[in-house]
Amino acid sequence: MERIQIGDLSLEMLTVGAGPPLLFLHGGDYFAQHREFFDRLGRHWQVVVPRHPGFGNSERPGAFRTIHDLAYLYLDLLEQLKFGKVIVVGASFGGWVALEMGVRCCGAIDRLVLIDSLGVKFGGREERDIADIYALSSDELLRRSFFDPLRVAPEYVRLSDDELNEIARDRQATALYGWRPFMHDPGLRQWLHRVRVPTLVIWGENDGIVTPDYGRKLCRSLPDARLETVGQAGHYPQIERPNEVADAIERFARAEVL
Fold first, then answer.
1. More exposed terminus of the chain, fewer Cβ within 10 Å: N or C?
2. What is the rounded distance in angstroms from the CA atom of residue 170 to the CA atom of residue 52?
3. Among the listed residues 224, 225, 226, 244, the one whose alpha carbon sits nearest the alpha carbon of residue 236
4. What are phi and psi of 123, to 5 degrees?
């Protein structure tokens, strides 16, 4: 991990591969599990992965408390790096950040990929669109998150103290940004028409956190989007099926029209 300075803020950042730039915005899940996916993307792109403020070893100023702060930060990052047009990929919580970026400014975004994204409220006040991950038992959370938890779920007892501290910081920061209202921005849905770039919505067929039906609704709400589901995958298809997800992104990047 290297560090990058954005204004007064210092973030951890991982860079993998070479080629056209691709910005990946991660979720609140165990970050180290993405390495195979990043390496796979790195065959075709320079994959840039900042650690959100408050996550891992990235500092979080006291003023950074909302998802909007993250969206503006990463728009500043793209401006600072002078990549030109980039592919932005956001997963889960990171997909929410990507959507918030898209409704504000798509000038630096060539294409958008949303993997089991959060952030939008489609149902009524008493309907739960997104599972309350803080109310679930650890076993139930794993069952909802992964198609095959025994194969891919982290073995926390084998992790070092430093790794466990990073995971705790990630969970704390996710709650800070997404607790109230829970994992969505009440005003975001009405502005989704502003995401005027080709968008690929990727969804795990077995996602128990945000179901494929949520993914279909999100896809229909965007001006230029298509949905691709991934079999035998839960909320983190990029972890369970890294090759399938990377292949879908590569096909999308090559397509001239959706």
1. C
2. 9
3. 244
4. -85, 180
Q: What is the DSSP string of 84-129?
A: -SEEEEEETHHHHHHHHHHHH--TTEEEEEEES--B---S-TT--S
* CA pair distance 146, 143, nearest whole angstrom: 6
DSSP 3-state of 14: strand
CB 3 within 8 A of CB 13: yes
How far apart, in whole angstroms, are the C-alpha atoms of residue 103 and residue 180?
Answer: 21
Amino acid at 42: G
Considering the entire predicted model, what is its pTM? 0.97
First to last CA, the chain: 35
pLDDT tens profile 85-123: 999 999 999 999 999 999 999 999 999 999 999 999 999
CA–CA dist 250, 143 (Å, integer):
29
Q: For residue 72, what are the CA distances in angstroms to 8, 139, 202?
A: 14, 36, 24
Distance of CA 144 to the CA centre of its chain: 17
% of residues, the chain, pLDDT over 70: 99
Return the SS3 of 8.
coil
Q: Positive or negative CA dihedral for 129, 133, 138, 141?
A: positive
Check: CB of residue 236 under 8 Å from CB of residue 26. no
25 residue type, one letter = L
